[in-house]
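Lab meeting minutes (informal)
Scribe: AK
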Amino acid sequence: MAREIITTDQAPQAIGTYSQAVKVGSTVYLSGQIPLVPETMIMVEGDIEAQIRRVFENLAAVARAAGGSLADVVKLNIFLTDLANFATVNAVMAEYFEAPYPARAAIGVASLPREAGVEMDAVMELGG
C-alpha cells in the first residue's frame, strides 16, 4: 500500500527526521507534537494547561490536513515530564474529545524536546 506524507503549515514543522503524519490506506499516524506555536516555532507561553491545549491544537491541525479530525483518533499517547499533570490532561482532553474516547496511554518521561512538559502522538482511522 502506498504511503502519503501529510504536511501542513497550521502545525509546527518537523524539528527532526520525521513527517508530521503518514497515511497508509485509511490509517493516519500522527507524529509527536510538543507545544510549539506553528507561526514562530517557539514554545507556547504559559503553564502546563497552555502547553496541553497547544499540543491538542497542533494535533487537530495535522488531523485536518489528513482529511480527518480529533474525533477520528483511535489511539492517543501522552508523554508527561510530571505525572502530577495527569488530571490537567484529563480536564483539557474532555474539551477536545467526546465519548467514546480513543484508547490512550499516559507515560511519565524524564525529558522532552525543547524542555516541553508534554508531547502527544496519535493514530487516526478514516475508514468509517
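Next up, CB showed the second protein from the same session:
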Amino acid sequence: MKTAAAYLRVSTEAQDEYSLDSQLKLIRSYAATHDMVVPDEFVFTDDGISGRSAKKRPEFQRMIGWAKEKDRPFEAILVWKFSRFARNQEESIVYKSMLARSGVEVISISEPLAEGPFGSLIERILEWMDEFYSIRLSGEVKRGMAEKVSRGEIVTPPAFGYDVDSAAKCYVPNSDAPTVRKIYADYLSGKGITTIARELGLAGIRTTRGNPPDNRYVKYILQNPVYIGKLRWSRSGKSNYSRENFDSENSYLVDGHHEPLIETAAWDAVQDRISRSDRGRRKYQRMDQPVDWMLKGLVRCSSCGSTLVYQALACPSMQCHKYAHGQCRVSHSLSIDKANRQVIAALEYACDNLAFPVAPHTVKRSASGPDYARLIAQERVKYRRIQEAYETEVYTLEDFARRKKEIFAHIAELKQLRDAADAAAQAGTLQPIAFRETVLNVLQIVKDPQQSESAKNAALRSVLSYIVYEKPENRLALYFFT
C-alpha cells in the first residue's frame, strides 16, 4: 500500500469550488480504492490563497520540502484537480518535474490521464486552460474594481478616521476623525513624525492590528489622499505603491463621494514639508552601509527590550528600533565603534574574573544557534547550480571561477564557525574555567581585523545570549548562555 499526501486549496477567485472538507473526502475515497493511505500529518491545506504563485502558499512549500527529503515520507500527492496544485503552467511543470525526480507523482483524482505521451499532452492542455482561466478572471476582477473606483465607489477597507457606509458605498467619518485632523495640525506646527507617533501611542491609539502607531503609520496617514476626498488606485488594478513610494506613475486619483477631513491647502503644505524632509534625510544616507555588523541583533533596549538597529549616519550608530519608530519613550543611541570597544572590554573582564552572568530568561543555545549543516548544504547546492550554468554556457569560465571561489570561501568560514559553536556548546556545560577558553577563542575572532563582520557576529552568538544597553549607567551588560 502506498503512502500519499493530500494537497487542498481554495481561493477567493470563485464561489463554486469544492470546500476543503469536500476535497479531502473525495481524495480519501480515491485513495481507499487505489490502494493508498493518506495520513493526517500529510494533509496540506492552503485556505483562501490563490494558485498563481507557489511562493505565497506556505503549506504547498512545506509539502514540497517533505517530498524532497532523502527518505521521502510519501510516494504521491493527490489533488482534487490539477488547478489546485497550480494555476501557473511554468511553475506547475517545474514542481512536477522536481517531484518526479524524487519519485513523487502528482495525481488529479477528477482528471484521469491516459498512459504515455498522449496523457502528458492532455495534462499540459489542462495546465494551460487553468492558467488562462486564472489570468482571464484576474483581468475581469481588476477591470471591475477599476470601474468602481472611476465612479468614486470604494473597493478597499476604510482608512483610519473612516467607517464604511454600505448603503451609500462610501466612507463616513468616525470618532477617530478629530485625531486625523490633529495629526495634520501637529505636523504643520513643526512636530516630527516620530514625536506624533509616540504621542498617539501614549493617547491609547492603536492600529487595526492592535499595535501602537509608528512613524511609518503616521507618514502613511499624512500622505493618504483619501483625507482630501480622493480615492487612489493603480492602473494595474492593485496597490503597486508601497508605504515609501506614494507617487507611482502607475497610480491615479479620482474624486470620492466621502467627506474630506483635511483642506487641500493644508494637504499641500504637508506634502511640501515631507518632500523637503526626505531630501534632507537622503543627503545623509550612506551607500556603503554594511549588510552585517558585529553586534547585529544582539543589543537590546533597557527600557522596552526591543533590538537596537543600525543607523546609517555620519557616525554609524545603533538605536532602539521602537524608539526610531515612535513606540519607545527613551532614546538608546550608541556609536557602533564605542559599542564594539565596550563589548571587547567586557569579554576581557569576564575572562579575567571568570564572571559569565546568565539572565533568567536566557535562550538555550541549541534553540537559537544557526543550523550550520543546512547552511553548508545550501552553499553546495549553489555550487551545483553554477556548474550547470557553466555547462549550459550561461556562465563564462571567469564567472564560474569567481563564484566558485566565493562559495568555497563561505563554506570554509561556515565550517570554522560550526566548530567554534560545537566547542562553545560543550564548554557551556563545564566549569567557568573551561568556558573561559571558549570565550577567549571568540575574543580572538572578534579582535581580528581580517575576520568579516558576519563571522564576528556568529562568534559572539555562540557564547552570548544577548546584550542590554543600560542607558542610565551608559554601559553594555553581557549575558551568556548556560
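CB comment: The two ends are 48 Å apart (CA to CA).
No objections, moving on.
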